[in-house]
């Protein structure tokens, strides 16, 4: 920007009066707009004028010679700017700090790298700032604030407006190595007021499915097409066009009806009278440093990243970092989607303090002296920041929420967050999904836990089906992975998943209710993968020795087992399915198929066990054995082989009944343990968590 003479910079009294009149009109609009701005209900009133500034360093209360010179240069720059761009609003250059001293905005940014691994990435810094601070709306939504407090004061009181959020986040990002800038611009009502009721909760967004690319075949068989009449094709095309036109008209009518119905159900959004005028501040991160592939925005209120073409951001006045200040000279009538962020382009970005990064060419000593004197005259070194060192203790970093809790309202959803160890049950996050926009009918509730001794990680509660599913991290004493139930009472319907690799029986899942129980196995040496048990009704006085006396066991009606194919055995010797009908005293075997077979071999033993005076004996006759044996080997056709097979099955039936009783007892033990864990919840504290261990000792 060309340097103007002082005579050209001076304004007439009429110009000043016109500016005062426009300001008064703007104040009237501001009062009307303030009534429309909705302040969050969870933000209590806070009087910034009552804060104690006596303990602050002297740099907060005075200005050095360099700072005074900087303020003078900024005022001169502002005079030139208002003269050349009289239609543009005043720049945000040197607001007052908490001690009432005017400070240039670039000196308020203090690059800081905090000693926490999570804060080395931009997402961790943005999440910390959005969670740690409480949002305060601007007093006037049309103008930037008259004051800008230091990041240390903002961290101390854990609250601030969008400019306070932005300066703190930008300081952390620059300290972490990002090419970050504070942005003064304009945004929509939802962005400025932190209204996310029209947005879908990020936890409910489904991940995009990546389409599987099929490998093209090297050789393809070209099939010649059948000859067709061109006239017939034209007639078909005309009929298709007519049918499409009729269908489009019907669809358009249906869409209009649906829109009318939706409008009646959902309130129309209110017209935004201040669209494009609401002032907002956010962070700009340029590509290049820290391997950032593309330039993007960060909304400090939410911590979310946005593309520079996002329609929520309507324009930019200026940007700054800890070294310089740039004014946007580009047209923002179409928002920010057409803006160029090449700050070296002097036509698009007017820099306040010129930077000379070009190398000097070889010249005479006299020329070098002249160039050095010119650089001394034109260049300006930014003073050091007046802000004290930014510090965040371990306790403050762990308890990131100002009031111990944060509530975010989304479209048909509510997300609640708590700091660690605030809730006695270890609850840190809860997502409630509603069926209506008014958030009155609850559909599903999902809770996330941490530091639980029982390794409980997440709980899903479906309010329509009344089903509850608990998910556990590895390390539960009973090797539980998930548990779905309606009640912790036995025989009320339970689905239990286990970490099968840690179990001796390789049990992956068990589904149990009052009449049946199904177990699923993975990777067993006997190739068993399913065991299904059916129970009958209880009889009075029925009890089994060795079990709890207060448990009345259910009679076993049938046991069915399914096996995978064992490649080491021939198919006619490899059992695929076997069914033990306990009450009918029947055993049924079904064998695997060979590749060329269509019907499987089967053997059925009917009433195989008969009793006499001496005890139990096995009588193998034609009436007690039914078989379909397309077998090739002769041994399967012998009666001795069937007799030995029946003996083996009889012993295995006894063992299976014992295993079923053990499974029933395990279910009861798990339910009892889960009931005790929920009644006496215990939280674990890491040995590296010194802050929480100190509270635990107290």
UniProtKB/TrEMBL annotation:
Its main location: cytoplasm. The keyword Oxidoreductase does not apply. SUPFAM superfamilies: Cysteine proteinases (SSF54001). Residues 1-40, 237-264 are annotated as: Disordered. Residues 14-27 have a biased composition (Polar residues). Residues 1-13, 242-253 have a biased composition (Acidic residues). Residues 279-352 form the CEP76/DRC7 peptidase-like domain. Keywords: Cell projection, Cilium, Coiled coil, Cytoplasm, Cytoskeleton, Differentiation, Flagellum, Spermatogenesis. GO terms for biological process: cell differentiation; flagellated sperm motility; spermatogenesis. Residues 403-686 form the Dynein regulatory complex subunit 7 MORN domain. Residues 254-264 have a biased composition (Basic and acidic residues). The keyword Cytoplasm applies. It comes from the Eukaryota. One of its GO terms (cellular component) is motile cilium. Gene3D superfamilies: 3.10.620.30. InterPro entries: CEPT76/DRC7_peptidase-like_dom (IPR056290), DRC7/lobo (IPR033551), MORN_DRC7 (IPR056291), Papain-like_cys_pep_sf (IPR038765). It is found in: Cytoplasm, Cytoskeleton, Flagellum axoneme. Belongs to the DRC7 family. This is Dynein regulatory complex subunit 7. The lineage of its organism: Eukaryota, Metazoa, Chordata, Craniata, Vertebrata.
């Amino acid at each position: 920007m060309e340097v103007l003479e002082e005579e050209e910079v001076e304004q007439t009294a009429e110009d000043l009066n016109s500016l005062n009149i426009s300001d008064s009109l703007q104040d009237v609009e501001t009062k009307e707009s303030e009534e429309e701005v909705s302040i969050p209900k969870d933000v209590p009133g806070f009087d910034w004028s009552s804060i104690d500034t006596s303990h602050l360093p002297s740099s907060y209360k005075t200005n050095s010679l360099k700072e005074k010179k900087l303020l003078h240069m900024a005022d001169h720059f502002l005079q030139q700017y208002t003269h050349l761009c009289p239609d543009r609003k005043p720049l945000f250059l040197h607001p007052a700090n908490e001690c009432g001293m005017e400070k240039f905005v670039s000196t308020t940014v203090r690059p800081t790298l905090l000693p926490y691994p999570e804060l080395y990435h931009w997402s961790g810094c943005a999440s910390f700032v959005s969670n740690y601070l409480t949002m305060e709306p601007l007093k006037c939504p049309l103008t930037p604030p008259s004051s800008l407090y230091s990041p240390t004061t903002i961290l101390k009181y854990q609250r601030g407006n969008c400019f306070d959020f932005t300066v703190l986040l930008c300081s952390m990002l620059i300290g972490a190595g990002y090419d970050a800038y504070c942005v003064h611009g304009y945004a929509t009502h939802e962005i400025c007021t932190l209204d996310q009721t029209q947005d879908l909760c990020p936890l409910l967004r489904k991940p995009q499915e990546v389409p599987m690319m099929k490998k093209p075949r090297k050789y393809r068989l070209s099939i010649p097409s059948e000859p067709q009449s061109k006239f017939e094709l034209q007639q078909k095309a005309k009929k298709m066009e007519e049918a499409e036109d009729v269908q489009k008209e019907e669809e358009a009518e249906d869409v209009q009806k649906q829109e009318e119905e939706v409008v009646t159900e959902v309130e129309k959004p209110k017209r935004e009278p201040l669209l494009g005028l609401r002032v907002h501040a956010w962070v700009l991160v340029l590509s290049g440093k820290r391997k950032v592939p593309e330039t993007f925005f960060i909304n400090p209120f939410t911590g979310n990243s946005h593309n520079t073409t996002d329609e929520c951001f309507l324009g930019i006045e200026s940007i700054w970092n800890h070294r310089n200040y740039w004014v946007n000279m580009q047209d923002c009538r179409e928002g920010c989607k057409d803006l160029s962020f090449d700050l070296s382009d002097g036509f698009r970005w007017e820099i306040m303090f010129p930077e000379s990064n070009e190398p000097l060419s070889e010249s005479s000593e006299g020329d070098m002296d002249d160039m050095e004197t010119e650089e001394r005259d034109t260049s300006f070194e930014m003073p050091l920041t007046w802000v004290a060192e930014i510090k965040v203790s371990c306790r403050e970093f762990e308890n990131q929420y100002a009031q111990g809790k944060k509530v975010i309202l989304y479209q048909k959803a509510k997300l609640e967050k708590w700091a660690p160890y605030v809730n006695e049950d270890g609850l840190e996050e809860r997502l409630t999904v509603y069926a209506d926009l008014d958030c009155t009918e609850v559909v599903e509730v999902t809770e996330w836990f941490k530091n639980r001794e029982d390794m409980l990680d997440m709980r899903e509660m479906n309010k329509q089906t009344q089903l509850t599913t608990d998910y556990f991290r590895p390390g539960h004493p009973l090797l539980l992975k998930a548990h779905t139930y309606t009640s912790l009472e036995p025989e009320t319907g339970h689905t239990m998943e286990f970490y099968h690799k840690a179990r001796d029986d390789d049990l992956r899942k068990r589904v149990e209710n009052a009449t049946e129980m199904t177990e699923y196995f993975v990777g067993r040496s006997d190739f068993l993968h399913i065991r299904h048990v059916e129970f009958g009704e209880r009889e009075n006085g029925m009890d089994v020795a060795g079990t709890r006396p207060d448990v009345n066991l259910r009679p076993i009606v049938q046991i069915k087992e399914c096996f995978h194919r064992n490649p080491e055995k021939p198919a006619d010797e490899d059992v695929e399915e076997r069914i033990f009908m306990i009450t009918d005293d029947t055993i049924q075997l079904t064998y695997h198929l060979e590749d060329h077979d269509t019907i499987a071999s089967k053997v059925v033993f009917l009433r195989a066990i008969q009793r006499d005076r001496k005890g139990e004996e096995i009588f193998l006759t034609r009436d007690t054995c039914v078989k379909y044996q397309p077998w090739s080997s002769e041994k399967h056709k012998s009666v001795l082989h069937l007799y030995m097979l029946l003996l083996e099955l009889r012993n295995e039936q006894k063992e299976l009944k014992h295993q079923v009783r053990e499974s029933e007892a395990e279910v009861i033990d798990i339910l009892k343990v889960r009931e005790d864990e929920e009644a006496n919840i215990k939280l674990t504290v890491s040995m590296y968590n010194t802050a929480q261990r100190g509270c635990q000792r107290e």
